[in-house]
Amino acid sequence: MKGLLYSFMFLTAVAVPAQAQSPGGTLAKIKAVGEIRLGHRDVSVPFSYLDDNQKPVGFAMDLCARIVDAVKEELKLPSLQATLQPIQLSTQIPLIQNGTIDIVCGPATNTLERQKVVAFSNTIFVSSIRAVVRKDAAIKTFEDLSDKPVSLTTGSTSIALLLTRGQEKNFGVKQVLSPDHAASFLALTTGRSEAFVMDDILLAGLIANSQAPDNWRIIDDNLRTEPYGLIIRKDDPEFKALVDKTLVATMNNGQFAELYAKWFTKPIPPKNVNLNFPMPAPLKDAVAHPNDKGV
Question: Are the beta carbons of 47 and 127 closer than 8 angstroms?
């Protein structure tokens, strides 16, 4: 009887590690349904937006394509389907949490507050929160926006940052809220606001693709420098490890720099506009020293 008991204990001890090695969390879900679901944005140039054929393209989409390939290899599922799901800034986290999507392929600021409910990949970009105004406007700092209507995108970190600056410097603005960046920029170009506060690279994309790019400028003042990461589900170390490993590989083999040049320093669709946005120093540091630090 003791021999049988020891044999059972040995088999159990062997079985547990084997079971622990099987995919769990997001990877298990992907394997079970035979697809990985990618959340994409419509107007977040050059990270995730629609081209002339209504196809999602961009820097983040290209990075996600490499992650999809890594998942296929990890799960040994070469025929794995990648399903695309349109999302907005205000819906990206809820859709991750409820399982509708598995990863957000778009610009998302990695904040300590958001880390309470979702996880982020290693940093893929570093931006500054600034404001776009009319080229001839007498606006150089955020304090110059006092009592003026200002475009803000619902769910963006810009809202709280501008409010904090206002409290520190004793000024307030009239918020003009819109559901996405395109609508926020439209409010500015149609005269319903005098500035649009958002990440500088997104503002650069909107300006470059506008009808009159020379009419607009981005002020030098900034509210905060922010790291971007790809959003994934919280408490899923296995999937996060695969995502980060894939990103680090692209950084080490030169693919990351090539993709950056493709989307930030060369003509991009749909209008073949060049954003002329060289890799900023904080991003170079994040590439040299990969991390997922939030702000």
Answer: no
